[in-house]
Each structure stands twice: as structure tokens, then as C-alpha cells.
UniProtKB/TrEMBL annotation:
Residues 14-80 form the S1-like domain. InterPro entries: NA-bd_OB-fold, RNA-binding_domain_S1_IF1, TIF_eIF-1A, TIF_eIF-1A_CS. Keywords: Initiation factor, Protein biosynthesis. Seems to be required for maximal rate of protein biosynthesis. Enhances ribosome dissociation into subunits and stabilizes the binding of the initiator Met-tRNA(I) to 40 S ribosomal subunits. This is Translation initiation factor 1A. One of its GO terms (molecular function) is translation initiation factor activity. It holds the Pfam family eIF-1a. It comes from the Archaea. It comes from Halolamina salina. Gene3D superfamilies: Nucleic acid-binding proteins (2.40.50.140). Transmembrane segments: none annotated. Belongs to the eIF-1A family.
Length: 98
């Protein structure tokens, strides 16, 4: 998917990134996410996002799965509520995906 496909100003996933929904807060900067490929992964919130982007259950995020351990991932971006609604309404993310 390229940036041309998405509404203006919304970040598109790169080659190794997936849409995911935060399912559970685990503490210690870790969350459980349900990814668009059907897998549930433990994702970590990087230091650059900890205080700037508050992540809550139900948020739509972009994750980058680890190459060496598929059940884990890093959160790359959190979508604002308005952006998440636009993605769902436009059919870019469906409830069956995540």
C-alpha cells in the first residue's frame, strides 16, 4: 500500500509493518496486539513514544514484527482516533483483519 492510496496526511505501513489493535496493557512498556495477519503478539512501546503518545486498549497502531522472534513486535506509530476512523471507513482496515 502506498501513501497515494490513503487519505492525505495518514501514515501508510511500510513493507515490514502491519496494522494492529491494542488488546491488553501488560505493563513495563509492553502491550498485547492483534495484528492484521491474524497473530497476537507482545509489542513493546519504544522510548521515543512512551511519554509523547499515550497508548490505550483499542488503539490502532502500526507494528513491526521481529525477524528472529515472530511472536514479538515493536510499535512504530499510533493512529489518532480520527485517523483510525478514516482508515476503517475507507476499508483500509477491517474488523476481520484485526
Amino acid at each position: 500500500m502506498s501513501n497515494d492510496d490513503l487519505p492525505e496526511g495518514i501514515r501508510a505501513p511500510e513493507d515490514d509493518e502491519l496494522f494492529a489493535e491494542v488488546v491488553e496493557m501488560l505493563g513495563a512498556n509492553r502491550v498485547t496486539v492483534r495484528c492484521a495477519d491474524g497473530e497476537e503478539r507482545t509489542a513493546r512501546i519504544p522510548g521515543r513514544m512512551r511519554k509523547r503518545d499515550w497508548i490505550r486498549e483499542g488503539d490502532l497502531v502500526l507494528v513491526s514484527p521481529w525477524d528472529w522472534q515472530d511472536e514479538k513486535a515493536d510499535i512504530e506509530h499510533r493512529y489518532e482516533n480520527r485517523e483510525a476512523e478514516q482508515l476503517r471507513e475507507g476499508g483500509y482496515v477491517t474488523e476481520t483483519d484485526i
